[in-house]
Give the backbone structure.
Amino acid sequence: MPWELKSDRPIYTQLIEQIELMIFSGVYPLGSKLPSVRDMAQEAAVNPNTMQRALVKLEEDGLIITHRTSGRSITEDARMVEMAKTKLAQEQISEFLEKMQLMGFEQKEILAIIDNMVKEMKK
């Protein structure tokens, strides 16, 4: 999964989001060892300090565990990952709903648009 960083938002925030997505999608499975900070920073083409900061935040959130002698790994707590995944989904949906309301859409209209798009995806 390539790193897609844009200049419109802080790199640190985008790194957190992308690593979360890698965890949620199974690119980094539960309990798997993460590459070193330097390797991840090089792969993402960012400063190692920025990558370190993002990893510390993910550790504070409980998604990453640091082992004194063997680096970092993804938590094995599936419930923790599911809670973080749900929280991210709720944030995304909330942002979407706010924008739809600002555009003047009513709840029924929003649900109809979503329903139609889901049906199109299944085709």
